[in-house]
Q: What sequence folds into this?
């Protein structure tokens, strides 16, 4: 997203005029290259916001330099402003100890002595 190729660059690489490249791209994919890139940026921003990243950091991470234009575009594409989207879908960050993997949680429920090698702990 940060190494942006222009339509002119890509068209030149495939030996087409920019206008013809955009027409062929749209016919093939149903959207212009700009629309595809914008959709990808918004989807990436949604993932970042859901992970709890701030709106400003998400804006900058997906390549926008203006928070206002990012917020407006995000709202137009998703129907909600990025700040509201973040509040609605953000995964809460746990406070305190990090989560324990499921297998370790199950091991903690094994009765004491179940792991010993004595014959009393393992009935026949």
A:
């Amino acid at each position: 997203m940060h190494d942006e190729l222009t339509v002119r660059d890509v068209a030149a690489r495939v030996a087409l005029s920019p206008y013809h490249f955009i027409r062929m791209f749209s016919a093939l994919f149903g959207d212009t290259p700009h629309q595809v890139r914008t959709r990808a940026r918004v989807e990436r921003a949604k993932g970042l916001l859901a992970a709890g990243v701030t709106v400003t950091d998400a804006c900058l991470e997906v390549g926008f330099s203006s928070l206002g234009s990012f917020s407006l575009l995000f709202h137009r594409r998703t129907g909600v402003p990025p700040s509201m989207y973040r509040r609605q879908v953000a995964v809460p960050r746990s406070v305190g100890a990090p989560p324990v993997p499921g297998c370790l949680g199950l091991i903690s429920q094994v009765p004491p002595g179940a792991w010993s090698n004595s014959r009393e702990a393992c009935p026949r």
